[in-house]
Each structure stands twice: as C-alpha cells, then as structure tokens.
Amino acid sequence: MARPSKLLDEEVVLLAQKGLKELGKSGAVARKLQIIISARKHGISKACEFYSITKHSLIKWIKSLKKESLQALQVQTGRGRKFLLNEEQEQEIKNGLKQMRTLQ
Prior knowledge:
This protein is mainly α. It contains five helices and no strands. The chain has helices spanning 10-23, 28-42, 44-51, 55-67, 87-103.
C-alpha cells in the first residue's frame, strides 16, 4: 500500500462519502468523489493511473472539497471550447438550413 497522504485525511474521505450518499453514484461530481475515496485506500498515484487522470487534478479536487464544499467540484460555467461563430453568424446558418429544408 502507498504511503498515506497528509492532504487526504479522514475528514476529507468522510465528506466525500457523505456527498456520494447525497448525490448517488452518477454524474461528474460523484465520479470525482469516488476517485477521492479510492485514493485514500489505494494511494493518489494508483488512483490517478486507474482512472486516467493527472495527480494535479486529483489534488485540486481534494483541496476544493476540503476548503469549500461539493459545489466546488462541479464543472464551472465558461469552461470548454468557445464557439467560433458569433450569434449573428449562427442565426444566418440556421436560417439558411431552414430555407434548404423548405426547398426539398
């Protein structure tokens, strides 16, 4: 077994277990909680390897859960790829597609 992490103490694991009971076992936050719990049992490196995530991500999740709450583990708005088109261009494309459908 890996050496115990000072960051991943019993308090954090209890918070993760409590949150997992509230949320159920599906969803992004529940997956993060499951990874945190398994990291306590098997070590951070093994958990990261098994779930194909980086140590940096897992440590960030642990710190967020410890300092804040379950809401800190949710995907924040504004993340992800940005649209290449502005709203006007998107509307023009939608209108063009509607016109093409009516012609068929």
